[in-house]
Design goal:
With about 50 residues, the protein is mostly helical. The chain contains two helices and no strands. Helices cover about 50% and strands about 0% of the residues. The longest helix has 15 residues. The protein is elongated and about 45 Å long.
């Protein structure tokens, strides 16, 4: 899924009257935004070399 598709899905969902879909998509996007829904490589941020 491209970022354009994610944006289109978000706009279409938030423009709808489907409250459960809006809440579900908001939770999914929040997970990506907070990096909770994506794996981290290396497994710990402390394993990253400076300046990261």
């Amino acid at each position: 899924m491209t970022i354009d598709e994610v944006i289109t899905l978000a706009v279409n969902t938030w423009s709808s009257n489907d409250v459960s879909a809006i809440i579900s998509l908001a939770a999914t996007i929040d997970g990506f935004n907070n990096n909770d829904a994506l794996p981290v490589a290396p497994q710990s941020y402390t394993d990253c070399l400076a300046p990261f």
